[in-house]
Amino acid sequence: MGVERLDHIHIYVKDLPGAMKLFSAILGTKFSKVINNPEPLAFDGTLDPLGVELIAATSPTSHIAKSIEKRGEGLSAISLKVTDIEETTRKLEGLGLRVVGRLEKGGLKEVHFHPKDAYGVQIELCQYDDVHGAIVVAESGADRLTTE
Question: pLDDT at position 146, please?
Answer without folding.
Answer: 38
